[in-house]
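thought: fold this chain, then report.
action: predict
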Amino acid sequence: ISLATGSAIATPSSGGYSSNALKYGLSIAIRLDALWPRAIAGFKRNPLLGSGYSTLTKATNEEFTYAESSDNDYLRMLGETGLLGTLSFLLIIAIIIYTSWRIYRLSTNPLDQTIAIGTLGATVALLINATYIDIFESSKVAYTLWILVALVVKLYDMQYYKVDHAKKTR
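observation:
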């Protein structure tokens, strides 16, 4: 399937594969030719709110299909939840990164620092990984991240909120 036209490009010498498949391999070609254009089309249907959860594999919103992966979390977020949903999610991630960094910098407890830097590293790694898989909503790996985030939030609430709040009231 061609990214530009949406139609299959087959030549006798290509064995029926698109030019992207021949150039980059099947895995990337599926993303470039089918999955990512579908997510972009979902975003274009409604840029502010997206086309809705699990609609990227459907021809119409009324068609019943099981949700499939778009193999890019950012395009999936944009396609399904639009700018509002994507920016909201990324704001949560930014707060996680900021809070983890603050705990790491302010803490003198090695365990607190380890949890904070581990959460920071895991978050950055998953942000990079999200370019090629839907890691945040469909992975057991993401469950571990959200458990670490819960620990960071509790650490911040127990220890560092008091420090920040005391500085503001002076």
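thought: worth noting. The CA atoms of residues 20 and 26 lie 8 Å apart.
final: tokens above.
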